[in-house]
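Title: Prediction job returns without error message
Component: structure pipeline
Severity: low
Priority: P3
Assignee: unassigned

Description:
Job completed but the reporter wants confirmation the result is attached to the right record. Sequence as submitted:
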Amino acid sequence: MNFIYGFLLLLGCFSITPGVYSVCSINEAPIDIKWVDMVGTCTKRLKDQVQLEISASMTYLAMSAHFARDSISRPGFSKFFSQAADEEREHAIKLIEYLLMRGDVTKNFQQLLTFPLQVSSMTWADGAAALKSALATEVDVTTNIRSIIKHCENPGANAKNDYHLVDWLTGDFLDEQYKGQRDLAGKYTTLQKMMDTYGPIGEFLFDKKLLNGEV
């Protein structure tokens, strides 16, 4: 909870005037910084992952809004992608909390996120197209996490192996990523089979199952 309050305070440091930013600054305490020992390239890659998670969250939020439109009316898909957006945002917060714990998040929070955030699309042809796009998004996220793990296991001849970061990413993130990818692939296959069997009404039936947590 304290982190949330702190994060909201940091957001308040930005000016609402377009293109103009104010900087929130405080006098730093005279603390020995030797305990801050993350390799710079690992820190940079982890910050980039924050950006990627937030972009994925915004993409899923766009999907949720798309399927909630009165002309589409697929409440099951809307609910599913809304929950997916929440999960990606939580991942970004976990990464920020980790960087804060290691003492190396940033001295300038304007550099933590780059705006505008990238969203893959704002409309999708149907539910199958959205699930396929979501799976591609998750694969991109997983691939980037694996690249961070590989790099921070061997960041260079003059740098140390960051065992803690590598273990944390492997245990807390990769397991969930692979399970999420399998879930999306399964949903996509099930939907395709239902549409092959029942035609356009297959998506309607799948949406009902999705809404009730039956698939």
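Comment from assignee: result matches the submitted record. Residues 163-198 form the longest helix (36 residues).
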